[in-house]
């Protein structure tokens, strides 16, 4: 199976130069470690407020998981509505779910404000029931979302599922119109340029090796020298390293892999995804898939749990193609054009966390 071993999203995207030859600032108000979506969004927000900020990226901007993912901008969290209520209580669960919706609004607002050309669209998503019992669970989820969070979704019975997906592999679905999709590489590039325009310094090819307390400030040591900062944000996710050991102990890096087909004829693309939604199933190790703006089918999942290597990408591509054909047998003669992997981070309770560890945000 011949394919390009790189993300399809990066084609034609120009990221800011790594600027390894740019002198490091001696001192900034805030240093951000990691040039992905979280780090660049934070840098943009800080720079807009007049804060002097430097983003230190170990590789080049757009290298990590931020530009390698499925490009899905989804409502909700990993835990379902009922689990959130049981674990956190009504008030906190409602705030958490509302934050997930506000995050989509924030992406939409930034895309508009900064004129980021990333194909963002509020296309909605569909959760697909892999078992009959899962379909019953989706019906309960819809009831809980409406009753407790005031969030309206739509249950799709199996007999009507062909309106959403050209497959008979599933037992029902749940449609949420609030979600969206985008090209993540174009979004990351747009955030980077926006942060630069706002005054942030973007410095690539500069891994942070150690963070040292210096009174009320910090010294960030790199192979090119040190930067002093009044505050530090570690936005490194699955690529968290030895510079932040307390954070590193709290996340588990996991490999995720994606394949993308060659561009599909319009009729076939419409058959696979009549409404162009973001799609994922209810398996514990789920599959997620969607059409790209140029009419490819993108199909991803946890085909391997180790961080990506050329060997793991090839092995995972074969597994994902097999799984894709189980959902869409009509693609058996379609060529796989791209395959790639990336590293994401799991927390031990499967929930997002933000806070301060050893003085680092």
Task: Tell me what the structure shows.
- The protein is an alpha+beta fold and 361 residues long.
- Among the domains are: 124 residues, FAD/NAD(P)-binding domain (3-Layer(bba) Sandwich), CATH 3.50.50.60; 101 residues, D-Amino Acid Oxidase, subunit A, domain 2 (D-Amino Acid Oxidase, Chain A, domain 2, 2-Layer Sandwich).
- The chain contains seven helices and 16 strands.
- The strands form three sheets. The chain has an eight-stranded mixed β-sheet with strand order 5-6-4-13-14-15-12-16, with helices on both faces.
- Helix 1 links the parallel strand 1 and strand 2.
- The radius of gyration is 21 Å and the shape is globular.
- The chain starts with 26 loop residues before the first strand and ends in a 15-residue tail after the last strand.
CATH topology of the domain at 8-69 and 185-246: FAD/NAD(P)-binding domain
Q: Find the count of extended strands (DSSP E, 2+ residues).
A: 16
Number of helical runs? 7
Strand content: 15-25%
- End-to-end distance, in Å? 44 Å
Provide the gyration radius in Å: 21 Å
Identify the CATH class of the domain at 8-69 and 185-246.
Alpha Beta
SSE order, one letter for each helix or strand:
EHEEHEHEEEHEEEEHEHEEEHE
Helices and strands: which structural class? Answer: alpha+beta
CATH superfamily of the domain at 8-69 and 185-246: FAD/NAD(P)-binding domain
Strand arrangement, major sheet: 5-6-4-13-14-15-12-16
Assigned CATH architecture of the domain at 8-69 and 185-246: 3-Layer(bba) Sandwich
């Amino acid at each position: 199976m011949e394919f390009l071993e790189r993300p399809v999203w990066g084609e034609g995207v120009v990221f800011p130069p790594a600027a390894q030859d740019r002198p490091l600032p001696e001192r900034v108000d805030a240093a951000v470690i990691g040039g992905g979506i979280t780090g660049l969004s934070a840098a943009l927000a800080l720079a807009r407020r007049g804060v002097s900020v430097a983003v230190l990226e170990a590789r080049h901007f757009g290298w990590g998981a931020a530009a390698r993912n499925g490009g899905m901008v989804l409502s909700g969290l990993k835990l379902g509505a009922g689990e959130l209520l049981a674990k956190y209580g009504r008030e906190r669960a409602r705030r958490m779910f509302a934050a997930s919706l506000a995050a989509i609004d924030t992406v939409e607002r930034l895309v508009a404000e900064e004129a980021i050309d990333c194909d963002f669209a509020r296309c909605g998503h569909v959760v697909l029931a892999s078992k009959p019992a899962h379909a019953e669970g989706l019906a309960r989820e819809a009831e809980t979302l409406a009753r407790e969070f005031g969030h309206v979704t739509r249950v799709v019975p199996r007999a009507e599922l062909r309106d959403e997906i050209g497959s008979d592999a599933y037992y029902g679905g749940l449609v949420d119109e609030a979600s969206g999709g985008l090209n993540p590489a174009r979004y990351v590039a747009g955030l980077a340029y926006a942060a630069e325009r706002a005054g942030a310094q973007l410095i690539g090819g500069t891994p942070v090796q150690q963070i040292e307390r210096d009174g009320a400030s910090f010294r960030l040591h790199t192979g090119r020298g040190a930067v002093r900062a009044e505050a530090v944000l570690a936005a490194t996710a699955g690529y968290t390293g030895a510079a932040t050991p307390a954070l590193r102990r709290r996340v588990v890096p996991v490999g995720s892999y994606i394949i993308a087909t060659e561009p599909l004829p319009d009729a076939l693309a419409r058959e696979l995804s009549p409404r162009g939604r973001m799609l994922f199933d209810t398996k514990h190790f789920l599959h997620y898939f969607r059409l790209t703006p140029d009419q490819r089918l993108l199909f991803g999942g946890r085909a391997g749990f180790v961080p990506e290597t050329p060997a793991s990408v090839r092995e995972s591509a074969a597994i994902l193609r097999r799984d894709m054909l189980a959902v869409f047998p009509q693609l058996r003669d379609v060529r796989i054009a791209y395959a790639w992997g990336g590293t994401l981070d799991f927390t031990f309770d499967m929930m997002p966390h933000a806070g301060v560890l050893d003085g680092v945000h």
